[in-house]
Amino acid sequence: MATEIIPPNQITMANFKGRVEPDWCPGCGDYGVLAAVQKALVELQIPQHEVATISGIGCSSNFPGFIETYGMHTLHGRSLPVATGVKMANHALTVLVTGGDGDGFGIGCGHFVHAMRRNVDLTYMVMDNQIYGLTTGQTSPTSRLAMKTKTTPFGNVERPVNPIALALAAGATYVARGFSAEQKHLTELIKNAIQHKGFSFLDIFSPCVTYNHDNTVQWFKPRVKKLEDNPAYDSTNFEAAMEKSQLWGDEIPIGKFYERTDVPTLTELEPVLNPGPLVHQNNRIPAPVAKSFIDELM
Amino acid sequence: MRQSFSIGIGGAAGQGVATPGDIFAKIFSRRGLHLNAYNAYQSIIRGGHTFLTIRTGPDNIPTTNGHLDLLIPLNQDTADRHLRLLTTGGACLFNADLIKPGQSADGVQLCPLPVSKLADISRNKVAQNTLAIGAALSMMGIGFNSLESVLEEQFRKKERAVIDENIALARAGYDYATQNLKPFDHALSLTDARYAVLSGNEAMAMGAAAAGLKFYCAYPMSPATGVLHWMASHARKADIMVRQVEDEIGVINMAIGAAHAGVRAMCATSGGGFALMSEGLGLSAQAEIPVVVIDCQRAGPSTGVPTKTEQGDLWQMLGAAFGDYPRVIAAPLDIADCFTLMPEIFNITDRFQCPGIVLCDLLLAEGRLSVDPAVLDFNPAIDRGEIITSNGEPHDKYLRYKITDSGVSPRVIPGIPGYTHVVSSDEHDEDGILISDAYTNHAKRRAMMEKRMRKMDGIAASIPPPQLRGPATADVTLIGWGSTFGVIDEACELLREQGISVNHLPIRWLVPLHADAILDILNNALHTIIIENNFSGQFARYLRSETSFVATGHIRKYDGEPFFPQHIVDAVKEQLAGTTTLSIPEHEVMV
Ligand SMILES: Cc1ncc(C[n+]2csc(CCOP(=O)(O)OP(=O)(O)O)c2C)c(N)n1
Ligand code: SF4
Ligand SMILES: [Mg+2]
Predict the structure, then answer these.
(1) Among B43-52, B236-245, B284-293, where is mean pLDDT lowest?
(2) Is residue A103 in contact with ligand 2, taking CB distance under 6 Å?
(3) According to CATH, what is the number of the domain B197-375?
(4) Is B265 in CB contact (< 8 Å) with chain A?
């Protein structure tokens, strides 16, 4: 593993600058998410080689190419199983998972639910623009009712999924919502989510300036209300979180809805990982064990 | 003719067919006898008809053969279906209170067991099974001691009283047979050898463990579930992380994730699950992350016949996922080979950073074979290929997809300082930077495609060409792939006894195919017949597409059951007589 000793505060934004400039449209919300993730990693002083950033496919899923870590573009909708495999093979890595609403709540929704109930220690950030960006503007699982898109020219008739309520119901141990235009708030949430032991889910409003003219930064700005601004809000209270998750309209809560820390992570529950990350373990079966396997058959 | 003795035990699912099968297998393998067992069953938990055949003998037993020396019907249905498989010298041991066996062939001994007189059947519902085992061993001339010790073991988790009761029952059956029934004419010649008895699924699981597997995941699907069961029950001893995942799409992607992080990873499924995995296979190839996938074929298409065998997935494997990419496909030849193939295919996929497919089928996956324990080598050569595991010396700028002559670019285990990079399912340049969207560059795309495909040359050079079995020239050359190996070998023996000169070309490595070596052999052959367990001659079509070679004739079967040697013998004879060029043998065992 990391043989270099990195002195404190030596990790700067430069460490995480990607090899290529992002090719998102000017004004795309995803820039804000990228900056917040880089800031969070700097503030947590996590060296870039100890981070794996795994994405699906979509505009938002191009994320790993724009940040200097061990990155991987997987298939559309498959970031979570790949990231789960990475984490189980090397749980010393900080594993970030990035993607879009179509990637996570459409084609990848089955994996989303199961990753949460497994409580595998991943930080899953969905850049939710309520549209399919990369494929040029079709309806998404979070597109609002009546929204006109290329595939719903007469208005969307399917009700949108509620990612926060879904995550709560699926047993996620950390559920939050951010807004890419609220940089400081988002950076704090991401830091908090990375530090959470277990699956952390962050639904991040990341407006698409090109294909979603309904849910713009201007539309969100007056509506978003930070849960943290209400000192009475208790993010350990599941019922309160469920109730808040139902709010949509003039008031849309952002911030940490829910966190519980009493559920062991998948890697903690796996005795095979007790000696350390799987990737550093011996790959030979000891002779007495091999003999016992054969003896069973004799 | 090789000396062998076959037992058939049949009943409804839930009547306890498996236990007598396990007991016979243990007794034979511990007395130095080889065995081959095949269970014909249906996809139900209670009822239906389950028919287990165990064939044993002093030499290796490559297949079961549809012929019986001893039938133990546990219900009337089994007697009705299978009594006709017994020929002169054979015997049927049945519960006289329950079963009326009907008319048997001449020279078959019908052996009624007065079960209600010998046992308290109100207490023990499977008393007839244990009595019959005892009686059978007496008739075979095998001493009671070996049965007693196996029963002790079989019921070791039960209370003492249960064990004693079963031993007493077996003894009663044994003594009854000694006094009242005629022993078999030929006692089996026992040897000093001791064999392990295992299924192909267990063999593949253990072979992978021996190869250094650290991560296994799957979604249950017959007939591949046995691999998952072995893995789950041995994970902690073998230090393998084992997960049951939500679906096969998740399975392949999770295995790829683990492989990317640096461990050997594998999954197994059948045709339907494999179909869901195919996009992931392309990811493995494009991102250059080695992963091993086992496909245990069952009769398709769609849900098909979940408990029946077929070799119908070859073209799915050849065409899995879109685009051209390097892949390795190998079909194990028998259950022992299910073990030995695993370290070989792991080494190839690691060295060439591409997906490797083990194309098995239900016949091997769920069949059982006696194997010399020395074959189960837990210390095979492990070659992880070009892989950077520490940050060591200062180095040039690291390029994950560096263009090389071999097409292989050294990979790095994530976590090492100084080597961060991006791997991608999108087309990329040497540095992993996407060229698919804004930066499309046809020259880079071409170079990257050629780099990946160059690996096929290295793979071909690393796998052995197929070998002809039998004389270099013969009247007829039989060609098979994968699991038909044993049955074709035995058919060759039978044909030679009948004065027909024959040889056998078994194909184990399907992709890449050693086309030139195969043509060298086949161009000298006088009459060639391709034998496969599918409707359309999938291998025949593949061989033709790779070599232009067209065989003289074909023997195919797609009724869900495996070939027996006699099917091949009869078909070869009819084809040599010029009656037909396509034989489709009728399966005579009604299961
Ligand atoms: C199996 C598969 N189906 C469809 C696509 C095409 N596709 C690529 S991205 C995408 C949707 C992207 O939407 P989202 O995940 O919301 O990401 P965004 O572009 O909005 O950030 C689709 C349908 C694909 N790459 N793979
Ligand atoms: S299309 Fe939308 S989501 Fe994609 S980069 Fe442009 S603004 Fe961002
Ligand atoms: Mg989107």
Answers:
(1) B43-52
(2) no
(3) 3.40.50.970
(4) yes
